[in-house]
Structure formats: structure tokens, C-alpha cells
Specification:
The complex is a heterodimer of chains A (about 180) and B (about 350).
Chain A lengths: L12 E7 L2 E7 L1 H6 L12 H9 L3 H5 L3 H9 L9 H7 L7 H4 L1 H11 L16 H21 L3 H24 L3
Antiparallel strand pairs in A: 1-2
Helix pairs in contact in A: 8-9
Chain B lengths: L2 H6 L16 E10 L12 H15 L11 E4 L5 H9 L5 H5 L5 E4 L5 E5 L5 E8 L3 H16 L6 E2 L3 E2 L11 E8 L1 H5 L2 H10 L3 E5 L11 E6 L7 H47 L5 H16 L10 H8 L2 H8 L5 H19 L1
Antiparallel strand pairs in B: 1-5, 1-8, 2-3, 3-4, 4-5, 6-7, 8-10, 9-10
Helix pairs in contact in B: 3-11, 8-9, 9-10
Classes of the chains: A mainly alpha (about 180), B alpha+beta (about 350).
């Protein structure tokens, strides 16, 4: 169906009005509907984040059925580092600092799941410096898996090489770990 | 000041290079969101903290060179005129968000304009890296190297299970948005794109028009990017995106051939009419200009229009934006004046080709 205003774009908005038993139907495209005031946008226009803050608020219905005591607990969830409260976070859709992830941890899993198609764990890049320990861990894990496979395949010569690699890594691992207080 | 060449030229230097599938894919981009581990995010941070960050980048990275990314220019956004700001946005070197919150914001741009690092945007650090044509993997590699270089001096906010901790939950994990800018005139003409967009969204990817508002894509230019940043590695995300883009390229090519066969003369007529409008009009609105530029670019790709560079689409799309026009005129222009200048700039630019 084409837009009844501009007759150019397809109609995507359909409104049926019944006033005093008199029925009128309107079918318009987004642009014309906006011009005619059928839809309004906030100043910045529609953004993904607006949609997301909507998603964050999914537990408001649950909150109304909670006792006052529980409600207060929910309200008081606040980041100790930057002072961001959980309700403010839901409103703006942004964390205040890296620590917020820990402060709101108990509430975040369902949000991540919604936003990232059910995923809650990172599987990508590990920073070189900040994650040097992690990178070692990951490397060791993959060597151990390789070792297991080699043993199962009875490729013992190869397996010995991988075992030595693991040993070397574990040795080298100790020094930076001990020196790095964080 | 060397900011000048960022502002004066509509085409960034890297756009002059040819990339794979250049006729359909205009550019590939990788954006990485990063933050300092122990500093509150820009949305809540104290003013001085944000200024500290800005000073840190100026001190450590101004005029530095990393591999092909030479002589990083450091620019404080609040020092720019409104027109200069719009030009940088129109060239996609900075985001509208950075301009809106410009008090402590800055950007570092490499000489070839391939890398820009936004400072104190929604996150402390946003690295963007462009490549011509479809080169997502290459762009990812280089972005990772650049990221490692920055990390040498910055303690990133990172968590073992959640990855890079960003201000918005939609970026957590990889902090990466990979995107591709595509010119899809045949899929738009045949309306196939409308059926493909919902299918693509089901794969965790987003399609949107770059220019124009709402759902319409001015100039038939679409951006396709990943939505999900958690649970998949950067390489996998890029691979998924690339495979969808490759399919879109194939469909676009098929659609182009189909239109050529079925209604070649109508298509040729449409392309040459648009060419005529661009060559001779005295006043042109951005919408009409975008439509005609898209048609002419298609004509070039199909060999219907000869002796004109395909790069003209990228160049004219930027050249005809309001900020760029006003920069050229060196004063503010109202809509009517812009239409006149736009028409005259396009005419001149096309004359250069012949």
C-alpha cells in the first residue's frame, strides 16, 4: 500500500480512529506521518540506546509486586566507586565506570543476554599488558588440549614436545605473577 | 595549522586507493571502544579527570607515527568552528556525539586519515580505522596493532569474563563495531533490499542508511554492522559480517545484470538524465543530488558512462553536505544558497573529469 500523502513511499503507519461512531483510516509512510504529527521523535531522534533502555526496564512489573523492603534493596543498589545507582543506569543505559559491572553484577546477566543474543561471556581479544596472565592461561589451556589429543592419538614424540612447552610456560609464568602485585 | 587539509579535501587520502569490490563496497571500518581502568567514564567523570586524559593523549601521541599511520594530528574539538566540526563529522572522522559533548573532547587523526582516535566520547578512547573496499580482516589486524600500541601506555578497563568494559552495555566484550558502507542501487530499485534487511537483522547484524533520516537511504548507501559484541571473537564477528556482505554483493550484481537485460534502455535513460541534471542544473537539493550521484555512479560501474572516476560518488556525497558547502563558501549559507552552491560545485567537479 502506498502512502496516502506523498504517494511515493510505502505506507508503514496505519491508524484507525473512531470518533462518535465515525471511523477514519489513515495510512502513511514514516516521513509524512512525522510531518503530520502522528509520530514524534525526541530531540536526538531515535537511537538504539532508547530501545535498549526500554529493554532494561523489563523488571519494573516485578518490582511493583515486591514488598517495600525488597523495593528499597533494589533502589539502593549503587556503585561504590562512581555513585551510579542501578535505577539511574536503567534510565540512561550507560555505566558510570568499570566498577559498575561488579556493583550491578547480580542484575546484569539478563540484560547482557537480551542485548547480545543470549551471550554473557567474552570470547575475544585479551589486552597484552592488562591481560598478560590471562593470555598465558589461555595458551596453557590450548597446549593441554593439544597434549590430550596427541596422547589419545598415541603420538608420544609430539606429545613430549608439547609437554615441554607447557613446562617452559609454567616456569616463565611464575616470575611475572610473583612480581605483579595487582 | 595542518588541520586544514582534513577540512579542505572531501576525499580522504586513503579513498584514492582501490580496494576489493570497490564498485559496491565503498569502505570497511573497525571501531574499538576502550576505557582507562581506574577513571570514571565521561558521562560521570569529573571535568579535571577528562582534561587529564586529553592532556595525556596530546603529550604522548601528538605527531607520533605508528606504522602507516603517520604524524597524528591532535585536535581539541572545542577549538573548532561549527563548520569545521560538521566537516569532520561529514567525513566520518568524528561522531556527532563527540561534537555534542565537545568540552573535553579531542580527536587524533593520522595523515592519511585512515585512523582517527576519539577521546572522551561515550568511552574514553574510540579507535576507528578505515580501509577502501571490502577489507574487514585487514582492517581488524591493523586496528588490533594500533590498539596494542595505545595499550603500551594505557591500562585498559578489562575483565576476564566480560572483556573490555565499556560505558554502554551494547559494546561490552570486544568493544568492536565492524561496519561496511555499500552502494546498492539495483537492490534498492528492485525493492529487494526491503526484504533482505529483516533477514540480515536476524543474524545479529544491523542495516541502515548512512545519509538521510529514518528508513530511507539517501544515495542508496547502506551501512551494515555487527550488533553483538559479547560471546563471539572479533575474528568470528568479522567473518560473519563479511559473508553476509559477500552475499549482498552477489545479489547486487545479479540485480544489476537483470535490470540491464530487462530494461536496459530505461536504465540507460535514467542514468543519462541524472548525468544531465548534475552537469547542468543551477540549483539542486541534497536529496535529488544524492539520487543523481547514485545513478551516475551506477552508470560508471556498468560502463554506460565512460571517462569518469568511480571515486566521484564518495567525493560528491561529502562535497555536497551542508558543512562542506559552507566551509567552501567560507560563511554560513541558508538552504537556498546551499542548493545553488551545491549545483555549481557538482558542475565544476564533473567538468574536471572530461
Amino acid at each position: 500500500m502506498e502512502c496516502q500523502e506523498c504517494h511515493e513511499r510505502p505506507a508503514t503507519l496505519h491508524v484507525k480512529q473512531v470518533i462518535n461512531g465515525q471511523e477514519t483510516k489513515v495510512s502513511m509512510c514514516e516521513t509524512c506521518a512525522k510531518k503530520k504529527g502522528y509520530i514524534t521523535y525526541p530531540e536526538e531522534g531515535y537511537s538504539l540506546h532508547d530501545l535498549l533502555t526500554g529493554l532494561f526496564n523489563f523488571d519494573t512489573i516485578k518490582m511493583t509486586s515486591m514488598s517495600d523492603n525488597q523495593l528499597n534493596q533494589v533502589k539502593e543498589l549503587q556503585c561504590s566507586k562512581c555513585g551510579m545507582t542501578f535505577s539511574k543506569f536503567k534510565q540512561v543505559g550507560k555505566f558510570g565506570c568499570a566498577h559498575c559491572y561488579e556493583s550491578f553484577a547480580s542484575k546484569l546477566e539478563p540484560i547482557f543476554r537480551r542485548v547480545h543474543s543470549g551471550n554473557t561471556k567474552h570470547f575475544g581479544k585479551i589486552p597484552k599488558r592488562a591481560g598478560s596472565g590471562l593470555q598465558l592461561k589461555k595458551q596453557l589451556k590450548s597446549y593441554r588440549e593439544e597434549l590430550q589429543q596427541l596422547i589419545e592419538a598415541e603420538a608420544f614424540e609430539e606429545a613430549a614436545k608439547v609437554r615441554d612447552k607447557i613446562k617452559a610456560l609454567e616456569k616463565g609464568d611464575k616470575e611475572p605473577e610473583a612480581g605483579d602485585g595487582s | 595549522m595542518s588541520l586544514e587539509h582534513f577540512i579542505k579535501e572531501a576525499l580522504s587520502p586513503w579513498m584514492h586507493e582501490q580496494g576489493p569490490d570497490n564498485d559496491i563496497v565503498m569502505s570497511s571500518r573497525i571501531r574499538l571502544a576502550r576505557n582507562f581502568a581506574n577513571v570514571t567514564y565521561p558521562i560521570l567523570a569529573e571535568q579535571e579527570k577528562l582534561d587529564d586524559i586529553r592532556s595525556f593523549f596530546k603529550k604522548e601521541y601528538e605527531h607520533q607515527t605508528f606504522q602507516n599511520y603517520k604524524n597524528l594530528e591532535f585536535v581539541s574539538i572545542k577549538d573548532l568552528t561549527p563548520v569545521e566540526k560538521s566537516v569532520l563529522v561529514e567525513k566520518h572522522l568524528i561522531s556527532p556525539h563527540l561534537v555534542k559533548h565537545d568540552e573535553h573532547a579531542a580527536v587524533m587523526i593520522s595523515q592519511n586519515e585512515q585512523v582517527s582516535v576519539m577521546i572522551n566520547e561515550e568511552d574514553h578512547i574510540r579507535i576507528q580505522l578505515y580501509f577502501p573496499g571490502l577489507q574487514l580482516k585487514k582492517a581488524l589486524e591493523e586496528a588490533f596493532d594500533f590498539d596494542d600500541w595505545i595499550e603500551e601506555k594505557v591500562n585498559y578497563a578489562y575483565d576476564e569474563t566480560k572483556g573490555y568494559l565499556t560505558s554502554c552495555p551494547t559494546n561490552v566484550g570486544t568493544g568492536m563495531r565492524a561496519s561496511v558502507m555499500m552502494h546498492l542501487p539495483a537492490l534498492s530499485m528492485t525493492k529487494q533490499i526491503n526484504r533482505m534487511i529483516p533477514a540480515i537483522s536476524q543474524l545479529g547484524l544491523v542495516v541502515r542508511g548512512i545519509y538521510g533520516e529514518g528508513s530511507e537511504a539517501l544515495g542508496n548507501i547502506f551501512q551494515i554492522s555487527n550488533q553483538i559484541t559479547l560471546g563471539k571473537s572479533e575474528e568470528d564477528i568479522v567473518e560473519d559480517l563479511e559473508s553476509v556482505v559477500n552475499q549482498l554483493i552477489d545479489h547486487e550484481r545479479v540485480a544489476r545484470n537483470y535490470i540491464m537485460k530487462r530494461s536496459g534502455i530505461e536504465l540507460e535513460d535514467r542514468i543519462f538524465r541524472s548525468y544531465g541534471v548534475l552537469q547542468y542544473s543551477r540549483k539542486i537539493e541534497s536529496k535529488e543530488a544524492a539520487k543523481c550521484i547514485s545513478n551516475v555512479r551506477l552508470g560508471i560501474d556498468l560502463g554506460i558512462i565512460e571517462n569518469t572516476s568511480g571515486n566521484i560518488l564518495n567525493e560528491l556525497m561529502v562535497l555536497t553536505q551542508p558543512g562542506f558547502l559552507q566551509q567552501y563558501a567560507n560563511r554560513t549559507l541558508n538552504a537556498g544558497e546551499r542548493d545553488v552552491l551545491r549545483a555549481s560545485l557538482i558542475r565544476e567537479r564533473l567538468k574536471l573529469e572530461n
